[in-house]
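Loading example: each entry is read as two labelled lines plus one structure line.
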Amino acid sequence: AQSVTQPDIHITVSEGASLELRCNYSYGATPYLFWYVQSPGQGLQLLLKYFSGDTLVQGIKGFEAEFKRSQSSFNLRKPSVHWSDAAEYFCAVASNTGNQFYFGTGTSLTVIP
Amino acid sequence: NAGVTQTPKFQVLKTGQSMTLQCAQDMNHNSMYWYRQDPGMGLRLIYYSASEGTTDKGEVPNGYNVSRLNKREFSLRLESAAPSQTSVYFCASASGQGADTEAFFGQGTRLTVV
């Protein structure tokens, strides 16, 4: 069965520092992987997605993620965090039919000045 | 471009009351979903519909029913609300077309059952 693990419940970083959010997945085939961001009181917005090809994918707002099949990971990174990046981040995996999405429990990001 | 629209945005129910959460999408997507979001538990799939006329249970379907009224609309019904159903509910839709898919979310419905 598909599953997603986000080991870090909460992360605090200083503005301008680099960021890495971890995501591990379990899926029997080539996964479709996603990172979503949720600002307080809002729905989820797609940051980036991976289906195949180049294992380093670029997303919106300066985020990128790297797919590592050997580690079953899809970690999200940003070189320099801005205060507006404070939010909840969710990693997700979709079935290869694209019909079902499974989400991790989320990582809450706090950015301090 | 409205995307995914959920109504209502907020609702308070008494235990035992019933209600229906409405969801509509204007992106001609095949797949639609209902999730609930609880602190520390992420998003859990309640029901999904891979196409018009079909519905399937997700991880936490107990206490809920759904109807895929047409391609645009997917409603979630609580027949007899319980305090354990206090949550934020999100509707989502996706094309379901393999590598072209991504999930689009509504703004959520915050439901409190007292």
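The CA atoms of residues 30 and 97 of chain B lie 8 Å apart.
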